[in-house]
């Protein structure tokens, strides 16, 4: 109430003071030429001026109350200032405030400087109480001030507040000099502009947060799908070997029980290293090597002297983390497509070497190589590539080339990551 009364009194005093000065000057200038008393006319004009000013001031106060819900010195002022904290770095905060000002209704001239983090704009001032003959609101400034069209202006300055926050100083004011505030009101248009910009920034920040939350949920979903896909790819390489081994053992129980017993023992060793593990507990080169040796020992019983094995894996690399079943896949391909179809069989080499910050594991054979008769469907190798991509992205690699003088050499390269729970044991180079 005090703010409203002071606001009305200030405007009335300014206008009536100017009127009295003008009236005195006019009276002094006309007293020698006008015989009759004109004081009554001056009083009547003062009354009309006061009513005219009051009508505009009350319209201004009424609109400010509708916009802000309250009347005080801050809301009644023609010049509005806001300090807005945005939880993004200064560049992103600048983009938000720039977009909010450009989309403001009536914005006709917007100049932004990203280097200085400033935005300036001119905004048409719509008179909410005057209408054109076509029913559209005119871009006139004051309902009761016949000084032509006026505009508002906006200045926004972004101040970096650390690496992840920006502080925006927003000023919305009339285009007129500050002294005109003693005579003119803006019908709450600058208050409306300031509130609209704050709402736009709030909405954009909320939309950004919702987008980040959606990305988090999508990432979690993609991770679950990736784990499921890895498990599916893993499962594709397991069954056929198990079935073939059990069938071979069944035959040997009737013809050679001792070899059948040895085969089943190797199968038990193989299955022990094939127990399911979580994705958070990957295998190691040492564990995968033990699985591959158990598999090859089973194959040696089936193939006899046609299969030879040479292993050269340094002790220091046995604790390096390695994807489950990938070494097994390469070994199976070497046997199935390289040595089994070749008369007389051959040799499988398993080698591991450190290359800078990565480890390269190679499975090579001297089998039939890249021939039409020795080729397969390629499902196993496609699974290797896909699993490496899902698990490591671009940090891992897979290559397969011809071996000399015959056969194939396949190499998997993964980052050198040590499993501290595994202690190297055994010989670095073994031959079988």
Main sheet: strand order: 11-12-10-9-7-13
Cα-based radius of gyration, to the nearest Å: 43 Å
- Regarding quaternary structure, what we see is single chain
Proportion of beta-strand residues = 15-25%
- Write down the secondary-structure element order: HHHEHEEEEHHHEHEEHEEHEEE
Q: What structural class results from the helix and strand content?
A: alpha+beta
State mean pLDDT (0 to 100 scale): 80
How many beta-strand elements?
13
| Count of alpha/pi helices | 10
Characterize the main sheet.
6 strands, mixed
**Straight-line distance between termini:** 100 Å
Helical content stands at: 40-55%
Shape: rod-shaped
Unreliable sequence segments: 137-147, 422-432
Feature tags:
432 residues, alpha+beta, five-stranded antiparallel sheet, disordered C terminus
């Amino acid at each position: 109430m005090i703010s409203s009364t002071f606001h009305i009194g200030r405007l009335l005093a300014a206008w009536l003071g100017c009127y009295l000065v003008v009236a005195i000057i006019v009276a002094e200038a006309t007293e020698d030429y006008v015989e009759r008393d004109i004081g009554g006319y001056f009083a009547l004009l003062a009354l009309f001026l006061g009513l005219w000013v009051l009508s505009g001031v009350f319209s201004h106060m009424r609109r400010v109350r509708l916009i802000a819900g309250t009347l005080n010195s801050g809301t009644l002022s023609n010049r509005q200032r806001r300090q807005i904290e945005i939880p993004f770095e200064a560049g992103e905060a600048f983009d938000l405030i720039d977009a909010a000002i450009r989309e403001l209704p009536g914005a006709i001239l917007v100049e932004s400087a990203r280097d200085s983090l400033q935005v300036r704009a001119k905004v048409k001032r719509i008179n909410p109480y005057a209408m054109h003959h076509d029913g559209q609101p005119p871009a006139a400034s004051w309902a009761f001030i016949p000084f032509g069209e006026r505009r508002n202006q906006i200045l926004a300055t972004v101040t970096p507040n650390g690496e992840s926050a920006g502080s925006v100083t927003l000023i919305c004011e009339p285009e007129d000099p500050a002294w005109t505030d003693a005579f003119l009101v803006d019908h709450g248009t600058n208050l409306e502009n300031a509130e609209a910009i704050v709402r736009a920034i709030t909405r954009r920040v909320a939309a950004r947060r919702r987008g980040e939350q959606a990305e988090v949920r999508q990432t979690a979903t993609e991770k679950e799908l990736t784990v499921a896909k890895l498990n599916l790819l893993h499962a594709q390489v397991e069954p056929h070997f198990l079935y073939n081994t059990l069938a071979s053992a069944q035959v040997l129980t009737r013809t050679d029980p001792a070899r059948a017993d040895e085969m089943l023992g190797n199968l038990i060793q193989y299955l022990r290293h094939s127990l399911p593990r979580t994705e958070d507990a990957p295998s190691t080169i040492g564990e995968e090597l033990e699985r591959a040796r158990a598999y090859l020992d089973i194959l040696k019983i089936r193939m006899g002297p046609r299969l030879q094995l040479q292993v050269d894996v340094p002790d220091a690399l046995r604790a390096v983390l390695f994807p489950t079943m990938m070494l097994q896949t390469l070994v199976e391909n070497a046997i199935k497509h390289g040595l089994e179809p070749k008369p007389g069989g051959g040799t499988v080499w398993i080698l591991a070497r450190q290359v800078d910050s990565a480890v390269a594991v190679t499975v090579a054979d001297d089998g039939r190589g890249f021939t039409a008769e020795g080729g397969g469907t390629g499902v196993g190798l496609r699974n290797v590539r896909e699993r490496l991509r899902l698990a490591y992205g671009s940090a891992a690699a897979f290559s397969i080339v011809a071996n000399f003088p015959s056969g194939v050499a396949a190499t998997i390269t993964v980052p050198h990551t040590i499993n501290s729970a595994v202690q190297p044991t055994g010989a670095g180079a073994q031959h079988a």
